[in-house]
Amino acid sequence: MNEESKNNYYAIIPATVRYNKDLKPNEKLLYGEITALANSKGFCFASNRYFAELYKVTIHTVSQWISHLEKLGYVNIELIKDNKKEIKERRIYICDTPYIQKDTYPYVLKSTYPIYKKVQDNNINIKIDDLFLFIINNREKISNEFYSIIKHLEFNYTTDILSIMKEDKIQMIKEIIYTLYSLYNTDFKYILPKINRDELINIYIISKEHNPSDFLNYYKMAIINKYAKNTT
Hints:
By secondary structure, the chain is mostly helical. Helix content is 47%, strand content 6%. The chain contains ten helices and two strands. A two-stranded antiparallel sheet has the order 1-2. The N and C termini lie far apart (44 Å).
């Protein structure tokens, strides 16, 4: 019996996963299994073959499930490569997702398993800054559809206005825009026209107060919980 088969930890499936109508039942079960396997080291290293045998499905099916969980922002995938740039290990990390209680803003429960603080890509701040520059300069690299969303939310600041703004406020705007763009590239794109500017900023401030391990993912999931939870 290998280490994967010896797992005795509880599986945890938060409400954001349980009630997501875009997820298949087995994708939710897979998420729970990943949380259990991630308990020991902070990440799950089980192979697609292992999950395929566990759920009696094909390896391709498992691959699709994991890709879908990643696309919706529930897991992060890290590929460990050797000196020859060949993949030697895959690590699946659970994203720090917020919960909804009644109609309040999200909070984080104390987990019985460690939440992995994903090491941010060295390029993450560069990506945020680059996107921000594209937006304020209305560059062609940004689609008209997404730019219209930013314009509607009044985040299309000019350089003159930015020059008199405090750095922390500019950073907030950058991170909000980056999160919106992340949502724009997921299946939750449909909620963007519903978003209210004041609520968006309020969720940002409250999310910051919780000091989550992965703020951008936490903030994104908080927006999803706010605007997608009542969708039928």
